[in-house]
Amino acid sequence: MEVFYVIKNPAKISSELYDWCPDDEICCSLSSRNILAFSSVSDDREECEAISTTQVQILDLDKPWVIYKVATLPSQVVSLVWDRNGTNLLIATSEGHLEIWQMKNYMLNKWNRLGEVDLSGEDILSLAWLHNGVLIKFNADKRDNLKYGEKFPHTPFSPSLSHYGGRPLDGFIGVTSTGLVSVSLIQNSEPHIQSSIESLSPAHLRACLADIAYTANGDLMIATSDGLPSSAIQCFLVSLSMEQTSCVISSRASASLYVKCHTETTGGVGSVGRNSSGPASGGADHQNLCVTHLQFVNKDYSDTLVICVGAQNYSWIDFWQLVEQTHSLHRMFHTNSKPNTVYKTPKWMHKATITHNAMVTAIAGPKLPTMPCVMETSGFTPYIAVAYRDGTIKMIHRYSFQVICNCSVDQLRELNIPERKNLNRNQASHLSVLLQTHSSCGLVGVRDNNIYLFRSVNVNETGVQISPAYIVLLLEYAATAGWDWWDILLAAKQNIIEDMCQKLNDNFQKQPTAVQELMCSRLLAIKMALYKSSETSYHRAADCQAKLLLYTIATVFKGILRPRQISSQDNNPSEKLSMLCNKSSESELVILLTNLEVSEFIVDSASLQSFQPLIQWIADFTLHLLGSIPLQQSYSGIPGSLLIRDSSVLSVLRELFVIIRVWGHINPNCLPFFTMNSSIDCLSHLFKLLTKAWLCVKEGSSVEYDEGLVNDCCHLASEVMIRNTRQSFSQDTLGFAMFHQSGPLQFELGIEPDYVYSCKQNQQYMTLPDITTETKQMYDVVRQINLGSKAAEPVRECSRCGSASLIQSISTSTTMKAWEKRWAKACLCGGHWKWT
């Protein structure tokens, strides 16, 4: 393990006094989009009286110095839970209140309170969102399979609660210290929250610890403990069903267990199982033992439970697994139809015990739904992270429960960060909060009121090692499951980024056509992130974003084409167009149009008018590509240098030029605008040059361009004005830039680090010299329009790359509104939007 960066806690932020909670009271939660939610304390002074309130704030792991406030609560926050999509945050307070906060228009800094559930007088022990029935397991043994569907099959899994037709319902479940189960459903109509409460056990139940996990048949497994090692760890299965408009909760007892330290026959704390490190003290400390932690290793698996029993200077961690025990009936109960009847009952089996001479402060299980694999030693190792009060961190194998890494926080820290004033000098500093990222490539911890991000895989010292092939598999899984891939880049070394991109591209080319159309934008966004994480590959990242936008526009344009007559034997217009453009080497656009049925390309005039900015982007992008051909020998790293030798890109551009020319006959206002210095037909001229370039690279990228094409491209800048390069190629160098900085990094909330300024200066070299015009206008990256130096309408900004876009739609076309909704949840780079 090694420290990747640390976020220091400043005394003041924007004239407001903030002080984080004591370490033992801090709550944190990390979403699948790598957004960290945490609690803090602020003091508001009114009439000379200090009123302490708790604030819930969030930050993006890629820009951790920028924080956004979610809510301000009058009492202490005891739990924070993100939903699976990372857009809703569930907050529980010490007074028994549950509140749901939802992102407004998917923006990080705009939140709406969706509703609340009042459980006054109850201590909320555990919270979980209801499962939606979608589960894609990660099996490292299938990395050599060709198709994504074989690598990441959808596991049969029932939703926790479903309505008519099996539609999963959105909601959450909570468990209190008195054994109450509260299930709340989120609905669109008033009231937005509908709750049901039921007792977990028919008898009185007192609990101080609880955790919730999901089962494959839709039930929820709840494990509870009253904190005494001599008491049983009671487990219950909760089933949910709908009767008309209300939720019905039914609970039944499941297999229970006793912790191993209580059932050891040899007696005394010193009697431990395997993986023990020896006793800590005698029988006096044994009387002070209590259950400090109780949680499932992974919430998607209810068969593995972690129980920690500890005292001030000792801890005992048990790992238990739920198995099916077979019982044979006596022969007197056998029947002729079933002569050998057997019954299976669940039973908890003890797997391992790990002891240490310090109390456990945090346990972080993997969030990735992994499966046992036979190649773990050579490439992929799922783990459980445990933090102790003496500063030790242990990484334990997910399935063998062996300690694979043992390190100290003091050894990892290489930063000069002042300690907390009220810190006991005689007590070692420790991690009070520990979370695994969704890919398990990183760990988020809180120590001395500072947030740490640890790189837990592929480090130079001790830690888990993952081969590049498994990093590619993780990236493909993130694209398939819809998770954010930022944390996976923690495992990627700078010298393997190009090989990983090539492997991603090779695997993508082996997928069926339908899968390629679905995953194209996600894979290009992943490659863009990989190139941005490398200091010398900014131009490749710009090429990936331009290619992403080009393919997406082409999909939309060809998707609205409809055949004149519906026939199962004929290809649709887009397929006919692709076949014609791939076979024909005709460079005259007018002649090529004679071989098409123009009637199949007719679209209503209003939609064509709304597409004009996208059509303009295609024309400008083509100008940049062709204008870069004469410069490639002198400037090898300019944007577009790789795309101009990509036959698939040139082929798509030729198809789009044919579509644009046909649409121009329907509505001339949709045609692109060119500032000309000559009388040539620019659209036809660009198509002719595209065809020449396409013929040069069609057989292979090693073929040099002919001299006539280079000369024509040299004269292109004198014939037509080429607009700003940044409108065609996103040249952001800020997103993912921390991966090529020398670490460990130090950040302070609200203060932009120095390397951001250096990255902004490095953007200047990426502009095509002498052939582009610069502009300082704000540019809408979604609609591809200029917004002026100051936009008249509200604008949103990407939290990572900084791209801007209007919040409200300005088009009346249904097709253009569908295009805008495509980017409603995230930017082209995959980052979150924020209100500016």
TrEMBL record:
Residue span(s) of domain Mediator of RNA polymerase II transcription subunit 16 central helical bridge: 474-663
Mediator complex subunit Med16 N-terminal domain: residues covered: 120-406
GO cellular component: mediator complex
GO terms under biological process: positive regulation of DNA-templated transcription
Subcellular location as annotated: Nucleus
All residue ranges annotated as the Mediator complex subunit 16 C-terminal domain in the record: 770-834
Keyword vocabulary terms for this entry: Activator, Nucleus, Repeat, Transcription, Transcription regulation, WD repeat
A Pfam family recorded for this sequence: Med16_N
Keyword Repeat included in the entry's annotation: yes
Role: Component of the Mediator complex, a coactivator involved in the regulated transcription of nearly all RNA polymerase II-dependent genes. Mediator functions as a bridge to convey information from gene-specific regulatory proteins to the basal RNA polymerase II transcription machinery. Mediator is recruited to promoters by direct interactions with regulatory proteins and serves as a scaffold for the assembly of a functional preinitiation complex with RNA polymerase II and the general transcription factors.
Family: Belongs to the Mediator complex subunit 16 family.
Subunit structure: Component of the Mediator complex.
Protein's recorded name: Mediator of RNA polymerase II transcription subunit 16
Species for this entry: Acanthosepion pharaonis (Pharaoh cuttlefish)
